[in-house]
Amino acid sequence: MLSHMENDFEHGQPSPADARAALSSLDADGARLAQHVVTPWWYHPALGAVVALLTGAQALPMPVAIVLVAVGIAALPVLTTTYSRRYGVAVSQPAGPRSRRLLHLALAMVIAAMAASLTIRLGALPTWWALAPTTLAFAMTVVLGRRYDGALRDELAHRA
């Protein structure tokens, strides 16, 4: 059937039956890909720890903050590359509207938490106050990250 489909595609429009078969094959590929998007248990807590490090660093004095931000920035690609190499899937691109909304929500939450920590430093408040936005950033990264994975799997499996 594939060689017949290739001939039809080369000479013009495919037949309706060939088009249905191609779409069915794409649906099956999406379902198989969705099965591979299974994030290991350690990924979101590790990502949350990096986000917490970046968030908490904003409240610390400048030399320490710069070092911790550099460590966090270096850890992000190590974490994401390790995941994509080990599992063969990169989950950094949303597959539909729900995963896109969750990704935007997570990014907005991280930005707000970092801004809160920076405000603590600039306002000369006690540094321990940064525990609140830092803890929130960690928890929301884990919770929203797991929801994002579920939405991504669902959208990949049920693409229309």
Automatic annotation (TrEMBL):
Keywords: Membrane, Transmembrane, Transmembrane helix
Domain of life: Bacteria
Keyword flag Transmembrane helix: yes
Residue spans crossing the bilayer: 60-81, 102-122, 128-145
Name of protein: Uncharacterized protein
Lineage: Bacteria, Bacillati, Actinomycetota, Actinomycetes, Micrococcales
